[in-house]
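Format is chain and fold; as here:
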Amino acid sequence: MGGPVLGKQKVGRYLFRYQWVLGLLALGGVFALSSWLRERDFSSGFVLFCYLEIIGSLLCFTFVANALVHFRGTRDRLTLILALGFLLAGLIETFAIWGLYGDSMTSVQEAGVFLTWMIGQTALAGLLVSALALEHRVPHSRHPRSETTVSLVLVGIVTYLTGAAYLGGVINTATLSAARLARASELLPAALFLVATIGFNRANPARFGFKRTLCVALWINVACHLAATQSMHVFDAPFTLALGLRSASYALILGGTLLDNARLFEQVRQLAVSDSLTGLGNYRALLNALESEIQRSSRSGRSFAVVLMDLDNLKQINDCHGHLVGSHAICRLGNVLRVHSRAIDTAARYGGDEFALVLPEAGSQAARRVGERIRERLSSDGEYPPITVSVGTAVFPQDGRTVEELFDAADRNLYGMKRGGIMGLSRIAACL
């Protein structure tokens, strides 16, 4: 079982370590392919061209929705800026489809297509680079409104400067048919995406969950613009290849975001039903397990048992040895329950020093044996100070048919054990 998993991890680390070599080789291959395609007599046609543009827009908007969900859960400013950047790119593509394209595209319309393409892509790449610079220079604020304001201002500034540069003619987007690079202006967004790739590789991965996926997507965007340098018109093979690569990068980063959100939701679910100190289930998880077992046992007629445990004299341990030792004593009991429970059992901490164990398909004798085994494991764990635990059991349906009745029966047994002298012995042991 461990071999294939370790093998995949080694392959993943190998690919990530040598991604620069692989990336440069891939870029060279894409450039060679687009140069070869430039000489081919190929036209994608208006329909395929619009399909690629629409797919890119839909992927952008879907990513924006998922990135905003991710930002709401993590308050990560990079995620918010990315969401706003892709929203901008998607809107530019959508407006371009509605306002510029036709079955017989004129040279003016074709220039407009290239212009909107360059503005959208350069603005997105510029936002990524600016976000990295902002992340490095300006610390995060603890106020979400401040983060949103900063991100909106950054998006506005980058969008304005990009649009002004292209619309004002500062950057020449003309197509030169005889030149080796027919569209040399594509090197600007390619360079910006490459800088963003370097920056995200150096960023802290803990703060950006889909970092590796994003880096691959940025490499693809660099390749996309290298392919576009060989384009002569909007329907030719190099530009169609560029559109396909861009859509693939959007799909990749969307997939990374979905996986990251799935992990985030799983963490939230675990936090909702687990105890932060011991990692066992909490009171909610305990109630869910009991309700499920009551329903199952009512249908099958088979009993189940509940074992309640109370750590003896935790207050004395805290007073004599400190609260850190007391917390460790709680963790010691939690570790015993985790290690010595069956896979079908549910172990939970539902109070300060109170624990419970739900034992499906178990009767009173099995529950008592489990309780004694836990007491023995705890007393022989070899750690200091020695600790003991009081145990009470209850069995469904003999001792009760509801959660409250089962708890009452187990509590009575537990405090009967405490009154039997265990507390006194534990008090002496606690301060040894």
User: Anything to note?
Assistant: The domain at 283-430 is CATH 3.30.70.270 (Alpha-Beta Plaits). The mean pLDDT is 81. DSSP finds 14 helices and four strands in the chain.
